[in-house]
Amino acid sequence: MDAATSTTVSKVYLVDDAIEVRRRLACLLGAIAGVEIAGEGEDADEALEGILESHADVVVMDVRLAGGSSLALIEALSRARPSIIKIVLTNHTARAFRDACAAAGADFFFDKTAEFDAACHTIQAIAQSRRARS
Questions:
Q1: Which UniProt keywords apply (predicted)?
Q2: Which CATH number is 65's domain given?
Q3: Among 3, 19, 38, 52, which residue carries the largest CB count within 10 Å?
Q4: Torsion-angle region of residue 85: left (phi > 0), alpha (psi -120 to 50) or beta?
């Protein structure tokens, strides 16, 4: 493996109240060249601190989290670090959820059931784009 493929270019933080989902994402995303799993959380407050401390570039989150929703987290990240790419991956895909996440500052919104692979491919494309620029 050469230095370009082993260099981390995207740090991804996972936020979901289901540990099984976080494990699956960590396994899939961690296998992408240039992607490092920066941390995990199951609620918005814990995650915000971890995301900022880890200097994550990308956050993948569910709409529903332990103790609430991710809308406040999306808004807080949009204010604190607008450059963080905020990806919502959820089973709550009604138009109202999509619109609320977009209004809060989410960059992408995926259906966890039908678009799980699309979310992973999006992160892969982000990492490839950053690797090409470095």
A1: DNA-binding, Phosphoprotein
A2: 3.40.50.2300
A3: 38
A4: beta
Is 0.85 surpassed by the pTM of this model?
yes
Token reading at 55: 């200097």
- CA dist 48 and 67 (Å) reads 14
Q: What is the pLDDT of residues 19-76, one digit of tens each?
A: 999 999 999 999 999 999 999 999 998 899 999 999 999 999 999 998 888 999 999 9
Asked whether residue 12 carries a pLDDT value surpassing 80, the answer given is yes
Count of structural domains, the chain? 1
Q: Rounded to whole angstroms, what are the CA distances from 115 to 3, 15, 26, 92, 112?
A: 32, 17, 17, 12, 6
Compute the mean pLDDT over every residue in the chain, rounded to the nearest whole number: 91
- Of the candidates 28, 24, 87, the one whose C-alpha atom is nearest the C-alpha of residue 56 is 87
